[in-house]
Amino acid sequence: MQIMKNSTLFFISVSVLTLFLFVLDLCSGSMWIGLSSLFEGAQSGSVEYNILWNLRLPKAIVAVLAGAALSVSGLMMQTLFRNPLAGPYILGVSSGASLGVAFVTMCGTLLASQFSIVNFQFSIALPLAACVCSTAVLLLVLAVSRRVQSNVSLLIVGMMFGSMAGALVSLMQNFANPDALKLFIVWTLGSLESVGWTDMPLLAGIVMLGLVLTLCLLKPLNGLLLGEDYARGLGIDIHRTRLGIVLATGLLAGGVTAFCGPIAFVGVAVPHIARGLLHTSNHRLTIPASALVGADLLLVCDILASLFTYPLPVSTVSALFGAPIIIWIILKKN
């Protein structure tokens, strides 16, 4: 009963904090804008209204979606592989997305010029190519997961797929022109501003589908906490569970990476923060806690990144801001 009271208080507090940070993210930036401009400027179409509605509001929503998706996918990977350093990109999903983006940025312009394609749209091609290639890597990992018995073997296979994709990216970088190379490097820094209202339904749909699939895996995930043998004793189908976890992780991490680029730290660190705050590993609590804490962390990082005259990459801020938190938790827990 005491645990339930504490967890209820925790979720109420974190939900209020999420709402506060969301509003603060809308208002803060190179120019402070009050929320009143969102309502007062709706009719007049003022500059403040356009900034809030077309720039800051989509960015804040993407921060919530990306933070929740990466944190939950990282939690599942740590449970599956029983490895505290496992993250959402450990199975090569990020490398597959990078391969797709590298092909578009470094080869797309060349192909467009060869075939006289006018108005080549990178804004559409980048997330599409990232989705296709990350899905291809995911399908390969899923196919392998049906043939291997050990999670360690699956982990190694995922890392090998990621290494091969990274090698192909390096090969393309070697022959790319400087402008295309710069565009690819900018994508690898991660950004929450690349998703507008047009792409928002697709990203939200992918994330929500991944979260719903995750909630369907609550019992198997809790069974895996005590090992595969114990889970089998409970009647849990290990192969089906592994398939579901990999698929959910691919949807969450792959979807976010396709639209926002790779965002470091969040998927690895937030599950530890959630478990430390709740003092439990029960996925019925840690999954929603990870989603909320991940959203809060990315909102804070976005607020800090937007305070500079030239906004910093959110991935850089997340690593600089979050790594000391993990070090502090480790030292405190001794």
In words, what does this structure look like?
The protein is mainly alpha-helical. The protein has a single domain, classed as ABC transporter involved in vitamin B12 uptake, BtuC, CATH 1.10.3470. It is 78% helix and 0% strand. It contains 14 helices and no strands. The protein has helices at 2-27, 36-44, 47-81, 93-114, 122-145, 151-175, 178-188, 200-215, 218-224, 228-233, 238-260, 266-278, 283-305, 314-333. Helix 5 (122-145) packs antiparallel against helix 6. The longest helix is centred in the first third of the chain and has 35 residues, at 47-81. The chain is globular and about 65 Å long. Residues 114-121 have low confidence and may be disordered.
CATH architecture: Orthogonal Bundle
Number of helices: 14
Relevant CATH superfamily: ABC transporter involved in vitamin B12 uptake, BtuC
Q: What is CATH's topology name?
A: ABC transporter involved in vitamin B12 uptake, BtuC
Low-confidence residue ranges: 114-121
What is the CA–CA distance across the termini?
Answer: 29 Å
Based on DSSP secondary structure assignment, what is the total number of beta strands?
Answer: 0
Helix content: over 70%
User: Structural class of the helix and strand makeup?
Assistant: mainly alpha
Order of helices and strands: HHHHHHHHHHHHHH
